[in-house]
Amino acid sequence: MAGLAESGSNPDVDLLYDINGLAKDAPAWFDRGMEYVGEYGLLLAMVLLVVGCWWSVRRRGGEDAASSVAALVWAPLAAGVAVLVNVPIRGFVERPRPFLTHEGLDVLVSGKTDYSFVSDHATITMAMGVGLFVANRKFGLFGLGLALLEGFCRIYMGVHYPTDVVGGFALGTAVALLLSPVAMALLTPVVKAVERSPRAGWLVRARGRSYEGQDALIPGARHEAAGTEERDLAA
């Protein structure tokens, strides 16, 4: 399997040269920015997106708050599981990095000595993006967009073939979706228990939020206020 995509006549390598060729024509400062974004920036952005979605869910409240938070917890866990699944896949395929096999690539990140298939970065971002989409459609669309951009960056940087990225997308999606029912069955009761906790409940629902997502009132306060208003009108 090590000879996968080693021929320069196949579409995988052709597309690699086309996308990586953009780096040769770009200014040095842009390449440095792409290096940071592709290596660290998009992963950080994905984490911040999950945190932002969690903040939105807990502030909104509602009866589905616990299940939504459980889905958000599954998103990074799915990424971790997918990376673990990728370990034996890489060892089986043993595909060298493209710059070790093909000349003329503009490699923006040095020191990559592990195997190329499949891309960990593509796997992680797509698993988190799909997990986020399951929890919240709006945030999930942004997450999927970040995952696609991550895949493009890995090819642009010259460290992965296009099929490495596609394989990472497929692996991340499969893990996030196929294991989601089991994960939700295990995580939702735990999150509901946290929600009922007087000390940790804020992790699931903002303090002062009722199950309908409205500002919670002290029991009886609504009725007392109504009664007072009626008495005032009667007077």
UniProtKB/TrEMBL annotation:
Species name for this entry? Streptomyces plumbiresistens
Where do the Phosphatidic acid phosphatase type 2/haloperoxidase domain residues begin and end?
69-180
Where, per UniProt, does this protein localize? Cell membrane
Q: Which InterPro entries match?
A: PAP2/HPO, PAP2/HPO_sf
Membrane topology, from the record = Multi-pass membrane protein
- Please give the name of this protein: Phosphatase PAP2 family protein
The alphabetical list of record keywords is: Cell membrane, Hydrolase, Membrane, Transmembrane, Transmembrane helix
The keyword Transmembrane helix appears for this protein: yes
The taxonomy runs: Bacteria, Bacillati, Actinomycetota, Actinomycetes, Kitasatosporales
The cross-references to SMART domains, in alphabetical order and at most eight, read: acidPPc
> Where is the chain membrane-spanning?
40-57, 69-89, 115-134, 141-159, 165-187
